Amino acid sequence: MESLQAIFTETLGLNVELFEEFQKELRIKNLKKKEFLIQEGAVCDFIALVISGTLRSYVQNNEGEFNNDFYLENSFVSAYTSFLTQMPTNCNIEALTNAKVYYITHKQFNSLIERDNNFLKLAKYISDNYFIRKCKRETSFLKNSAAERLEMIRILYPGIEQKVPQYHIASYLGIKPESLSRIKLLTYINK
Questions:
Q1: Which domains does the chain have, with CATH numbers?
Q2: How would residue 47 be classed by pLDDT, with cut points 50, 70 and 90?
Q3: Which positions, given as ranges, span the membrane (predicted)?
């Protein structure tokens, strides 16, 4: 919760009273490993903050599952397009470990914004973070090698290799697990 308060007071320059008002609206959800926070076809009516644990977001088709995001401790998690449009999501968000999140509903968040538009600063902060992460990933697929994408994921998600199975990381990078092993080996040899 300290990290969320720091976002309010230090990053966004909001007062502690606004943080306390926001905190009163938060609810806790505990997830078991492999439990879904949301599944494809549901409307996302929440924004959550990961307090502990690791989650992944993935899309699925008849060829398999494809990871498109990870959520580590102190990161916001949501099927954000669905949250904004209030239309069904096309992704799944699953706990990779036991996890705990604090969440606020779409209705509660909009109610806070209506009462005090300073909460728009938090909404912008969350949107900006999602946008920047998505743009970096998209650009990396167009410009970078798999090895460079691996470096990017290490920067975007510090400590991810200790928290997420390699086959999930490989899926996020758009490569096979054995290719990831080769890249890591070559990186190690070339150091």
A1: 2-119 (2.60.120.10)
A2: very high
A3: none
